[in-house]
Amino acid sequence: MYRVAVTEHFDAAHRIVGHQGGCANLHGHRITVVPEFSGTHLDELGILVDFKVVKSELRKLIALVDHTYLNENEVISFNPTAENLAKWFYQRLKETLEPTFRCLYKSSVELSSVKIFESPDCWAEYSEG
């Protein structure tokens, strides 16, 4: 099994509604998004997925949330925890990239997971498996 991941960042503010600590207050993060893809076969060049294709789609999603207050963002309709953000990015990347990969590559490439880092040492991950 081959695994490929890319990393992108964005800045945003949020608060965790219902939290009993400091996270209930408005605060900001430089959020890191790390989608990981997996597959069993490489293309004729020895590539599982083209990093440029992944980064292009990921940057489109990041543009929707970058430098925003996530609690009042029009595309976010949930409490913006790292866990919920991981699921949101996962679902949207799966919708756009898996059909693209089926067209580009002869073998099946799947989105394995998306990790969201709120800091270098705190992250949440979402996958369907």
Description:
Strands 1, 2, 3, 4, 5 and 6 form a 6-stranded mixed beta sheet that branches. A hairpin with a 2-residue loop joins β5 and β6. With 129 residues, this protein is α+β, with helices and mostly antiparallel strands. It is built from 2 helices and 6 strands; from the N terminus they run βββαβαββ. It has a single domain, classed as Tetrahydropterin Synthase, Chain A, CATH 3.30.479. α1 runs antiparallel to α2.
Task: Give a summary of the structure in a few sentences.
With 129 residues, the protein is of the alpha+beta class. It has helices spanning 51-65, 82-104; strands at residues 2-5, 8-14, 27-39, 68-69, 109-119, 122-126.
Give the key terms.
129 residues; alpha+beta; Tetrahydropterin Synthase, Chain A; 2 helices; 29% helix; elongated
Total helical segments: 2
Name the helicity range. 25-40%
Instruction: Write down the domain tally.
Output: 1
Our estimate of the beta-strand percent is 25-35%
- Quickly name the level 1 CATH class: Alpha Beta
Write the layout of secondary structure elements.
Blueprint: E1 2-5, E2 8-14, E3 27-39, H1 51-65, E4 68-69, H2 82-104, E5 109-119, E6 122-126
Parallel strand pairs: 2-4
Antiparallel strand pairs: 1-3, 2-3, 3-5, 5-6
Helix pairs in contact: 1-2
